């Protein structure tokens, strides 16, 4: 099955700086890689996703890159704001019936 | 669109009793729903895949007789925790697949077994 590893487990940045979270996956059949943001006590919210037919996707301050050869993908948040503070999860899976496999999560803290 | 609801949001029950949690897709039909549990400060762990009209597929180590899953319609899946024990206390979250892979999560149910 799929195995997704995520680093770092915690990340503290100053407001306005960039934050990068990295994930690796093991199953070459995976073709869908979403990122979720989870605030304390709340549901995970999909913030961006990327499919294996593209290498990069951007949505305002958030971007995701995918390297299929190396089996790793990364989340980039620019111009961080205090409201970006949350736990971020990467996940990997396919667009068929298989469930997603989640990384262990990164607790991002943006210092004002 | 792609709204998933879950009920109840919070439940306390006594050890040995059963608890039913509902997961509904409000504005779309979901042939596949997923049930996860999440312990404090940990990631989401898949418990089972719920397929409409067929038996659920359980992950290794998840007792199917303890965690009963029923997916009776395209908009409703239920998880029943039978003979609950304190170690079953956790945050249970369902998700529904939309289109080509996207999953949207319900708000979660916090179960406390005393």
What does this protein structure show overall?
The complex is a heterodimer of chains A (112) and B (114). By secondary structure, chain A is mainly β. Helix content of chain A is 0%, strand content 54%. Chain A has no helices and 11 strands. Chain A has strands at residues 4-7, 10-14, 19-25, 32-38, 45-51, 56-59, 62-67, 72-77, 86-92, 101-102, 106-111. In chain A, the strands form 2 sheets. In chain A, strands 2, 4, 5, 9, 10 and 11 form a 6-stranded mixed β-sheet that branches. The radius of gyration of chain A is 13 Å and the shape is globular. The relative contact order of chain A is 0.34. In chain B, 34% of the residues are buried. Chain B has strands at residues 4-7, 10-13, 19-25, 32-38, 45-51, 57-58, 67-73, 76-81, 90-98, 102-105, 109-113. Chain B has 114 residues and is an all-beta fold. In chain B, strands 2, 4, 5, 6, 9, 10 and 11 form a 7-stranded mixed β-sheet that branches. The chains are: A mainly beta (112), B mainly beta (114). At the A-B interface, strand 4, strand 5 and strand 10 of A face strand 5 and strand 10 of B.
Instruction: Kindly provide the radius of gyration of chain A, computed on alpha-carbon positions and rounded to a whole number of angstroms.
Output: 13 Å
Q: Main β-sheet of chain B, in a few words?
A: 7 strands, mixed
Q: Can you give the helix content of chain B as a percent range?
A: under 10%
**SSE class of chain B:** mainly beta
Largest interface: A-B, 23 and 21 residues
Nearest-integer average pLDDT of chain A: 94
Strand fraction of chain B:
over 45%
Unreliable residue runs of chain B: none
Quick one: overall form of chain B?
globular
Which sheet architecture does the biggest sheet of chain A show? 6 strands, mixed
Which spans of chain A of ≥5 residues are poorly predicted at pLDDT below 50? none
Strand percent estimate of chain A: over 45%
The helix count of chain A comes to 0
Query: Total helix count of chain B?
Result: 0
Strand and helix order of chain A = EEEEEEEEEEE
Q: Provide the gyration radius of chain B in Å.
A: 13 Å
Order of helices and strands of chain B: EEEEEEEEEEE
Helix content of chain A: under 10%
Number of strands of chain A: 11
User: Care to count the β-strands of chain B?
Assistant: 11
């Amino acid at each position: 099955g799929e195995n997704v590893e995520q680093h770092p487990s915690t990340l503290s940045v100053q407001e306005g700086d960039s934050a990068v979270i990295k994930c690796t996956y093991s199953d070459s059949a995976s073709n869908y890689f979403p990122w979720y943001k989870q605030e304390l006590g709340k549901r995970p919210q999909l913030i961006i996703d990327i499919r294996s037919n593209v290498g990069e996707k951007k949505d305002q301050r958030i971007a995701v890159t995918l390297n299929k050869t190396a089996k790793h993908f990364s989340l980039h948040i620019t111009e961080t704001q205090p409201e970006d503070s949350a736990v971020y999860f990467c996940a990997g899976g396919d667009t068929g019936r298989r469930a997603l496999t989640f990384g262990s999560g990164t607790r991002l803290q943006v210092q004002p | 669109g792609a709204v998933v609801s879950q009920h109840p949001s919070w439940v306390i029950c006594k050890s040995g009793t059963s608890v039913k949690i509902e997961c509904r897709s409000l504005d779309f039909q979901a042939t596949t729903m997923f049930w996860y549990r999440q312990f404090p400060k940990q990631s989401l762990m898949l418990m089972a895949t719920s397929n409409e009209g067929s038996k659920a597929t359980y992950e290794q180590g998840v007792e199917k007789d303890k965690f009963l899953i029923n997916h009776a319609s395209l908009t409703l899946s239920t998880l029943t925790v039978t003979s609950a024990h304190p170690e079953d206390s956790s945050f249970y979250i369902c998700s529904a697949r939309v289109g080509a892979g996207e999953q949207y999560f319900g708000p979660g149910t916090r179960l406390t077994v005393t």
